[in-house]
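Q: Structure for this?
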Amino acid sequence: MTDPLTLAALDTERHVARAGWDQPLRLFALVPTAELVAQEPQLAAGLETHDTAEGALSAVEQDDLPEADGVEDLLARIAWPEQVAGCALALERIVVPPAAERDLPDDPTRALEAVAAHADRQDVRLVVAVTRDGTARCLLRQRAFDSDDRVALGEDIAPGLVHALRATFD
Amino acid sequence: MSDRAEPRVGPDAAPHEPLGPARPGRFATASLTTVFLLVIVAAGLTFVGLPYVVLSPGPATNVLGSVDGKPVLTVEGAQTYPTEGALDFTTVSFDGGPGRTVTVYELLEAWVRDDVEAASEDLYFPPEATEDQIEAENAEMMNDSQVVAAATALRALGTDVPTSVAIADVPAGGPAEGRIEPGDVLVSVDGEKASDTGAVRAAVQARSPGEDVSVRLRRDGEEQTVTVPTVDTGGRAVIGVLLRTQYDLPVQVTLNTGRVGGPSAGLMFSLAIYDSLTPGSLTGGERVAGTGTILDDGSVGPISGIRQKMVGAHEAGARYFLSPEGDCADAVGHVPDGMELFKVTSFDDARVAVEAIATGEVAGLPRCG
């Protein structure tokens, strides 16, 4: 059976995906569904079977994110209250072949232009979810293969982001 | 950027108000007035050096052909015969592993293409291995596979291939350390002739753990006897040595495989050596590809990356592919269009399969299912 964190990550990924591409970064708190329902009983009606499983997690979007200078800086400003069991981050990226990446200009704006104009660019959306115990799930969707059954799941796709998300619980 | 209220989370946020106002559903549709437009350049710490390997189809090489003007296979010291057709050994292109890095870009293909596969690095490499160690190990396995392939082909022709049992390695800290050295050739153990590795193991395991064994060995041409205490491993007596079979080949076999390493070409080498030592063409002019290790008893062992190897062979023009039995499950459902896959468990199976392919009578051959 799929574990609660994977389910929450997949749910979050699909939820974000339904809003299409060219989205800003989105951050979610993962909270135990049971506690959420206890606080907000009207939510119980919308639950599916896997939501009632022991340890099930729900994603609660955090809008009004603090101003920050990039993802790492944003995450460095986040601290979670203890009711939050984990968190998930969704962000889009453009990736280019390793050779092209090495040749990018140092200036960030020009580098971004070069990446965006690259013939072999691929647009991806990454969803990284972690829990307080350090467990992590990464999901990656490609814009060129935009369907739920083409989403890749791994633990090690984005070690840097996993590290930064874990650090929000330190 | 729009103005926004104080962040709900963050250093200044009240820790007891985590979730804000009640939300209408599990995914509250936050208004995206918080336009946090972060389209980020791929470079940077996020995606660098991922612990994956990416397996993709590698080239297929005809053992009966030549590479860079040099024949792949040379057999000296015996009558050889012209060959026809092709016996292709197949490869997997590996990206990642010690000394190399995989980026997310390289993983993208693996997730959408059937013939490219991403796997966790530690499935393929021990965590502490260096690039040099891996290359040395692959080169050694390649060499060993060539020798066993030659022995297998010669035995199939009725030629006696004398063997001896030699010491491949003496792990530090074991009872044999300081008493037995790598390269020693075993003569007997407790008076039992060291005819093969099985006989040596049986002689050692005839002791109770803790008892001494008497090992007669040859080092630098001189015979000597050493006494080695045994230790208990899972209830059995061992002396802490790694054995290898040493072959005294009556012919000189050279295989020019370039930078290809690993043991998985053994089966195809053995078929090609057999073909060149027998009159007439084994393949009947057909192009047959395959993969699999060859073992001392003539059996064929499983390998990794059969899906990638089949695609590489198909691109090289092979219509027939020999698969070790243990890889059939992995192969089924991924056989390229127009390719026929046959299951082989031994050199003899493979020889029979190639002979049948040569005559076009493949109906009775075992298949992968």
